[in-house]
Structure to design on (145 residues):
């Protein structure tokens, strides 16, 4: 998934400017393919990376992006070690204009949810072990869409 590497590279200066480590863990080759509309994966990643970097804020923290194969397609995970979300915040996170911070517009996760589900995928929010938020997407393979 070259797109993952490209988007992580694009966001690296923003992460560096905030003192945040941005790490990408690539799957074994060949890279899995996903069935998404044109530009959707880029928009999904941009929203998730922006949210994770913003959640950590200025200071030390880490955002990890990983890609793995699954029986149903591909698992894309973005995990941060920021403040995370309460269960109540997670239950409302996909609603437009709902945000856990004072800085956001509340559109990022709503857009991600819409793009993922419109393409036949699923999205799940969970606590990151040790603190933070993990966003896990299951995206269909081209032959499963």
């Amino acid at each position: 998934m070259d797109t993952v590497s490209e988007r992580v590279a694009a966001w690296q200066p923003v992460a560096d400017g905030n003192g945040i480590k941005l790490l990408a863990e690539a799957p074994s080759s060949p890279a899995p393919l996903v069935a998404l509309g044109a530009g959707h994966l880029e928009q999904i990643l941009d929203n998730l990376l922006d949210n994770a970097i913003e959640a950590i804020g200025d200071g030390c923290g880490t955002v990890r992006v990983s890609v793995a194969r699954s029986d149903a397609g591909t698992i894309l995970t973005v995990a941060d070690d920021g403040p995370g979300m309460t269960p109540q915040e997670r239950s409302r996170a996909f609603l437009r204009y709902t945000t856990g911070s004072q800085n956001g517009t509340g559109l990022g996760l709503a857009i991600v949810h819409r793009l993922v589900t419109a393409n036949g995928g699923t999205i799940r929010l969970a606590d990151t072990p040790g603190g933070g938020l993990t966003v896990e997407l299951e995206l269909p393979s081209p032959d499963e869409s």
The domain at 2-144 is CATH 3.30.565.10 (Heat Shock Protein 90). The first helix runs from residue 2 to 17. The mean pLDDT is 87. The longest strand covers residues 61-70.
